[in-house]
Automatic annotation (TrEMBL):
InterPro entries: Ig-like_dom, Ig-like_dom_sf, Ig-like_fold, Ig_Fc_receptor, Ig_sub. GO terms for molecular function: IgE receptor activity; IgG binding; IgG receptor activity. Residues 27-103, 123-176 form the Ig-like domain. Pfam families: Ig_2 (PF13895). The keyword Thylakoid does not apply. One of its GO terms (cellular component) is external side of plasma membrane. Residues 1-24 form the signal peptide. GO terms for biological process: antibody-dependent cellular cytotoxicity; dendritic cell antigen processing and presentation; Fc receptor-mediated immune complex endocytosis; granzyme-mediated programmed cell death signaling pathway; neutrophil activation; positive regulation of bone resorption; protein import; protein transmembrane transport. Keywords: Cell membrane, Disulfide bond, Glycoprotein, IgG-binding protein, Membrane, Signal, Transmembrane, Transmembrane helix. The keyword Glycoprotein applies. The chain crosses the membrane at residues 208-227. It comes from the Eukaryota. This is Ig-like domain-containing protein.
Length: 253
């Protein structure tokens, strides 16, 4: 019966190693923008920061823009004077992390831009919008609109703020203000507020236990299979030898 226990350990070890490796998956890097707006105007300055697991300056960071590796290897990537070609999606990775999710940056042309931190929000999150002027020229008498209706009017330019978003705050927003005597409007931006997120899909301990159990059963099963096969084979061999021997015996008579 030794063969089964000789077979089991490697299989079981492999399974434990696989599940342990899965549990200690390296974390994902995170790209953040500073200032936080994902929509900027030409000539704005924005810094992309790659947050890994280390607090120390990491000079082995990889950055991708639109899927192509770019030369910056520092943990922050400065776009000093944004141009249209800086638009697109960014992703980073440190030596201790998996690649981050994609982060979008849009560089727009115009006098006034409605800025947001993101386009899609969850219910209960805060929404902050900023009416931003080209080269930060002074902007007066700013109004914010949703679906064509004025929502807020402020004398000096102040941000538009919703502290607890509901689905009803979804809609098409724009802002308008005076730069000197010029009455300038932004293009509109569709803000989407989604209902509560579905159940989490991260593995629970129940699932881990289930996988381990499945793995163990599989290992026992495999072990049994080989054990049976080997025994059967030796049984057959014994039987054949026995038969040959008997034949020889009978011939010898
Ligand atoms: C990246 O993609 C965006 C959007 O498709 C495009 O506007 C931009 O010019 C691209 N930039 C580069 C350098 O590929
Ligand atoms: C946000 O609004 C919802 C629905 O109106 C309410 O149930 C919830 O308590 C509010 N949350 C906060 C933090 O104010
Ligand atoms: C959203 O709008 C609908 C209809 O306009 C209204 O019945 C509902 O109470 C609103 N919900 C919230 C959270 O304001
Ligand atoms: C800007 O123009 C709109 C019409 O296009 C007008 O209704 C609004 O009052 C003007 N804003 C200011 C601050 O003058």
């Amino acid at each position: 019966c030794g063969s089964m226990w000789q077979l089991l350990p490697p299989t079981a070890l492999l399974l434990v190693a696989v599940s342990a490796g899965w549990q200690s998956d390296p974390p994902k890097a995170v790209v953040s923008l500073d200032p936080p707006w994902y929509r900027v105007l030409e000539r704005d300055s924005v810094t992309l920061k790659c947050q890994g697991t280390s607090i120390l300056e990491d000079n082995s960071v990889q950055w991708w823009h639109n899927g192509s590796l770019i030369s910056s290897q520092s943990s922050s990537y400065l776009i000093g004077m944004a141009r249209a070609k800086d638009s697109g999606v960014y992703r980073c990775k440190t030596h201790l992390t998996k690649p981050s999710d994609l982060v979008r940056l849009e560089v727009h042309v115009g006098w006034v831009l409605l800025q947001a931190v993101q386009q899609v929000f969850q219910e209960g999150e805060k929404i902050q919008l900023q009416c931003h002027s080209w080269k930060d020229k002074p902007l007066h008498k700013v109004s914010y609109f949703r679906n064509g209706r004025a929502k807020q009017f402020s004398h000096p330019n102040r941000n538009f703020y919703i502290s607890n978003a509901t689905r009803n705050d979804s809609g098409s927003y724009f802002c308008r203000g005076l730069i000197g005597k010029r009455n300038e409007s932004s293009t509109s931006l569709n803000i989407i507020v989604q209902g509560p997120a579905g159940p989490s899909i991260s593995p629970s301990w129940h699932q881990v236990f289930f996988y381990l159990l499945t793995g163990l059963l599989f290992a026992v099963d495999t072990g049994l299979y080989f054990f049976m096969q080997r025994n059967l084979r030796s049984l057959m061999e014994d039987w054949r030898n026995h038969k040959v021997k008997r034949n020889q015996d009978s011939q010898g008579k």
